[in-house]
Design goal:
- The structure holds 2 protein chains of 2 kinds.
- Helix content of chain A is 17%, strand content 29%.
- By secondary structure, chain A is α+β, with helices and mostly antiparallel strands.
- In chain A, strands 3, 4, 7, 10, 15, 16, 17, 18 and 19 form a 9-stranded antiparallel beta sheet that branches.
- In chain A, helix 2 packs across helix 3.
- The longest helix of chain A is centred in the last third of the chain and has 16 residues, at 355-370.
- Chain B has 3 helices and 8 strands.
- Chain B has helices spanning 18-24, 53-65, 120-124; strands at 2-9, 29-37, 43-50, 69-72, 75-79, 99-102, 107-110, 130-134.
- Classes of the chains: A alpha+beta, B alpha+beta.
- The A-B interface holds A 51-53, 109, 113, 186-187, 194, 196, 271-276, 281, 283, 336-338, 348-357, 359 and B 85-89, 92-93, 101, 103, 105-107, 123-124, 126-128.
């Protein structure tokens, strides 16, 4: 029978400081030199990493009570509104939320210099944050207004909860039109002026475990410079898509919802971003350890950039208006080298996801595991995988007048 | 012709309606890029002047006749490494490779001597780690 390891065996080795841990890049050469079987015996854990814009991120906050108490109806942090339709002094601040009175795209393209992601970064950096809240007042919560300065240390809880992170593969964006486009994939120059892409390829968590054999609900991860957990599959999780012979999805597929205590994270790994003409968002650092339980898991974790493909998508017509188009695929090797070919034309590539930072994350996680400060957790439930029957739905077009079946 | 200049003026000169005169008497298109006047009413004006060569020259002569110092604008691009997250987007917009991505380390670097201050990088940086500075002396 083929060689197998258990989570318990790997954690025992981690406790003794004997675990063999390598990054998702280092593993490629080791497998090439030693072969799959020997490498699977030797290696206990492969660490992955990604650091890029992830709009579907945010933080749950509990401010504690004012005196007299308040049931916050509207809440702003540095002028950026947080959702407060939950209990009295709880709120959720989203990374893409803009300040009140932001000029948005009124003068196109807008600057979007500050937003929810910047507030989260500033909070984490220990800066003073202005907290404003209004309320209608009740017998139990008579206060109608709070206007004060808070810091992260003043909060009871600050729980980062990101409903969709770590997208397993993502389109490469181009522009076939005659004018410059300002998108969440950055600036796209006209007539195939550049091609923008955003994943860390061979380092990316879900590209190294394409069928989610080890990544599931409850997996302990590197999140924002601290420790977090996979909470659930992310929104738009769509594992049953086109996959290559190596099992790697060739289009956007799985996603993760992740959770962790903001107070133990590091502002270097949660950074507010401003995309001109698009909006504000946040770069999130995520690293996931993959336990090498058997050869098959190692085979997937040793995936190389040249074997990972993503679809090339036009952002002037195809993406925004759902127009049918086929511009083919690009490999991550070409994308990282700086040039791809589309319709016979050489096109410069523009990365959005930081490979340098992704490497650092994989390296930090490797060190945590080697030094025994980070043990692996067995998922308590699996994520829906390629055999799932998930339909990727759109908003139905129905009349609100009630004439629909 | 079109040119960007910095005008340094003293207290007395700041009382003069120079922009009005440049437009009305010298037929120049005036675009104020930056201006600052201190409490003593000394200050500077960064301005783009556009018009025919003769009119441009006459406009500059007018400013000088008032004792205003007119100097060419020198701009500089500053890349701050501490703010940069090394995403690597800016080098694909830089026409002179002043901003460059090392494909081995995937690190961004900036060589000021190669920069032609085209400004392409300013908009594409999501962390706003690249900024344009006007080099301006203390008010005269």
């Amino acid at each position: 029978m083929a060689y197998q390891k258990t989570y318990e065996e790997i954690n025992e080795k981690i406790k003794r400081g004997e675990a063999v841990v390598v990054t998702a890049e280092e593993v490629i050469d080791i497998v090439a030199q030693e072969g799959m079987e020997k490498a699977a015996r030797e290696i206990d854990v492969v660490t992955t990493g990604t650091f890029g814009p992830m709009c579907s991120s945010g933080v749950f906050l509990n401010f504690g009570h004012s005196k007299p108490r308040i049931k916050m109806q509207k809440v702003w942090l540095n002028g950026v509104e947080a959702y407060s339709g939950i209990a009295a002094v709880d709120a959720y601040l989203g990374a893409a939320q803009l300040p009140e009175n932001d000029p948005e795209n009124k003068v196109y393209p807008g600057r979007f210099s500050y937003g929810g992601g910047h507030v989260i970064h500033d909070l984490l950096a220990g800066k003073d944050i202005r907290l404003e809240a209004t309320a209608y007042g009740t017998d139990c919560y008579p206060n109608k207004k709070v206007d004060t300065i808070i810091r992260l240390e003043d909060l009871n809880e600050a729980i980062l909860f990101n409903p969709r992170n770590a997208y397993q593969n993502y389109s490469c964006a181009v522009n076939l039109s005659e004018r410059t486009l300002y998108t969440y994939m950055g600036i796209l120059k006209p007539q195939l002026g550049n091609a923008s892409y955003s994943t860390s390829g061979q380092l990316s968590p879900l590209l190294n475990d394409p069928y989610y054999r080890t990544i599931g609900v409850g997996t302990r991860i590197f999140l924002g410079g601290g420790i977090g957990y996979v909470a659930w599959n992310g929104t738009q999780h769509h594992p049953n898509v086109l996959r290559g012979e190596n099992g790697v999805p060739k289009v956007g597929a799985g996603t993760l919802a992740v959770i962790g205590d903001l107070k133990q994270m590091d502002p270097n790994w949660l950074v507010g971003l401003s995309y001109i003409g698009y909006g504000a968002t946040m770069a999130v650092g995520i690293g996931i350890p993959i336990p090498i339980l058997d050869e098959e898991i190692l085979y997937y974790a040793a995936v190389k950039d040249e074997d990972i493909y993503c679809p090339i998508v036009d952002y002037s017509e195809q993406y925004p208006y759902g127009k049918d188009m086929d511009l083919g695929f690009a490999s991550f090797k070409e994308l990282k080298n700086g040039k791809i070919t589309i319709n016979g034309k050489g096109v410069i590539t523009t990365p959005q996801s930081s490979i340098f930072r992704a490497r650092k994350i994989a390296g930090m996680l490797k060190k945590w595991i080697q030094t025994g400060s980070f043990e692996l957790s067995r998922p308590v439930a699996p994520l829906p995988s390629a055999d799932a029957d998930i339909e990727f739905k759109s908003i139905p077009e129905r009349s609100p007048n009630g004439n629909n079946k | 012709m079109k040119n960007r200049v910095v005008c340094y003026f003293s207290t007395a000169q700041s009382e003069q309606p120079i922009i009005y005169q440049l437009i009305k008497n010298h037929d120049l298109i005036v675009n104020i890029l930056k201006a600052d006047i201190n409490p003593q009413k000394e200050g500077y004006l960064v301005v783009e002047l556009e018009g025919s060569r003769d009119k441009y020259k006459a406009g500059i002569e007018y400013l000088k006749s008032l004792g205003i110092k007119v100097e060419p604008l020198s701009e500089t691009v500053i890349w701050s490494e501490e703010i940069c997250i090394q995403c690597g987007a800016c080098p694909s917009f830089c026409p002179t490779k002043a901003l460059d991505l090392d494909r081995e380390t995937m690190m961004v670097s900036f060589d000021n001597s190669k920069c032609v201050i085209c400004g392409m990088c300013l908009d594409c940086c999501p962390t706003r780690a690249i900024k344009l500075y006007f080099e301006i002396r203390e008010a005269v």
